[in-house]
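TASK: fixed-backbone design
INPUT:
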């Protein structure tokens, strides 16, 4: 008997995509490697998820769906719980990159800041998503509280560059 090899085959909800009003947990399909590569390189205007749990923010109303098509431009943050397309070389090289302390505010989310560490994102058309490590959400109100609960304890977030209203560099480069 063949063993399952993907999160979809294992029946797990491996990916989470967050918009200003939804938390979507499921499996991005097809995702033939890292979620970061999928989001950075896609030319499609939507992301397809299978076996999805959808929750509203900040209300926390839940529903399930066998499939969700989510507009790429709506995604604020994404995370992959278990990388099924690991590359040890990239992990080693990533540790050598120059990291900066970043603070980001987002269009349509006044008073909410994401703080963390990462490389300055490129300003050109690609890639649209970049990594922010050790993410912390600051702000007050029901939406800030709900987003904070969702990202609490995550080691990184994939952040949609086009949703950023302001990016503040809080330190000097470090390696």
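OUTPUT:
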């Amino acid at each position: 008997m063949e063993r399952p090899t993907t999160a979809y085959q294992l029946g797990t909800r491996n990916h989470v995509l967050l918009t200003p009003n939804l938390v979507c947990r499921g499996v991005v399909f097809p995702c033939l490697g890292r979620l970061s590569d999928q989001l950075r390189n896609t030319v499609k205007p939507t992301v397809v998820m299978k076996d999805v749990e959808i929750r509203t923010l900040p209300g926390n109303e839940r529903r399930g769906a066998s499939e969700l098509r989510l507009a790429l431009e709506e995604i604020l943050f994404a995370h992959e719980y278990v990388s099924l397309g690991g590359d040890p070389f990239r992990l080693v090289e990533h540790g050598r990159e120059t990291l900066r302390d970043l603070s980001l505010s987002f269009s349509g989310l006044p008073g909410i800041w994401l703080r963390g560490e990462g490389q300055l994102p490129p300003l050109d058309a690609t890639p649209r998503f970049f990594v922010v490590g050790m993410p912390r959400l600051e702000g007050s109100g029901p939406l800030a509280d709900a987003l904070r609960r969702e990202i609490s304890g995550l080691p990184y977030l994939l952040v949609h560059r086009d949703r950023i209203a302001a990016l503040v560099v809080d330190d000097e480069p470090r390696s």
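COMMENT: Strands lie at 15-18, 22-28, 46-56, 62-71, 77-80, 100-106, 113-118, 129-138, 156-160, 164-169.
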